[in-house]
């Protein structure tokens, strides 16, 4: 138990340790001592920022051996952090040291040029902008950005679009149960946006603006959820069952991998790691038992082996009849 807890806490510690070190160094640049010796404070802050990020990259890398480009990137990031985050007098002292500024600039340019070349080669090889971006930026950050971009496009566009059901496939809806609940959350979100803006604006206009942006983003996210649940039904064709929950879940199950339909599933069973529960905010009414485990990757690339797949349909009887005809 202690070893498993340490394994779970290690990634968090690797993330937080450099942030704490950089934050402490940034606060030190605002001290009276730093104001009296700004050049020394600037060099120390630059060293701490680059060193903290580099040590974190080494700790996170496989066998503690990050590539040369990764190390160059951490040093470049440290240069940017030290320039942007330092107190005014310390920043001015840093920018007055021309040799240091030239070295920082060349470091950033070298990393950006190297990364651009790597990304371009990846794009030519795969044709995927996402794969190319993952060569330069953290993969989870790229996946999150792509997901958020897709959700915002879905919220703002595709009004009146028909559900996505390719030729030769049957679509089975699941949105009529879940969308009314999300609509209620959306109404509450809109009320909260107005109330919070009115209250917080009396204290800080900047804070009110930040909360307004977050509130609008939350409302758009809920709209995207509702539209996604309607536009992306569960699909059944001759070879595959395509289990979807808007843009949140996407799993293709080969028909010959399905062993049988289970009559029911408990909440404890649905929460198991080897069960994909696609019935969001509701209890599943269709449960598939698989002949052998299949691999599923979530939005952020984390994988697990599935032995059962559960979801909820508005009208399960036609789906069950169509699926049994193929089993």
Structure, described:
The longest helix is centred in the middle third of the chain and has 29 residues. This protein is elongated. The mean pLDDT is 88. Strands 1-2-3-4 form a 4-stranded antiparallel β-sheet, with helices on one face. A 4-stranded mixed β-sheet has the order 5-7-8-6, with no helix packed on it. Helix content is 61%, strand content 14%. Among the domains are: 133 residues, no CATH class; 91 residues, no CATH class. With 327 residues, the chain is an alpha+beta fold. The relative contact order is 0.07. A hairpin with a 3-residue loop joins strand 3 and strand 4.
Produce a short descriptive summary.
With 327 residues, this protein is an alpha+beta fold. The chain has helices at residues 2-28, 32-36, 38-60, 68-85, 88-96, 98-126, 129-134, 139-156, 175-200, 205-231, 267-270, 316-324, and strands at 170-172, 234-236, 240-245, 249-254, 258-262, 275-277, 286-297, 303-311.
Specify the helix fraction band.
55-70%
Overall structural class, as computed from helix and strand content, comes to alpha+beta
Q: How many helices in DSSP terms?
A: 12
Question: What proportion strand?
Answer: 5-15%
Distance between the termini: 43 Å
Number of strands: 8
| Main sheet summary | 4 strands, antiparallel
Characterize the overall form.
elongated
Cα gyration radius (Å): 26 Å
Give the low-pLDDT segments. none
Strand neighbour order, sheet with most strands: 1-2-3-4
H-E order: HHHHHHHHEHHEEEEHEEEH
Report mean pLDDT, rounded to a whole number: 88
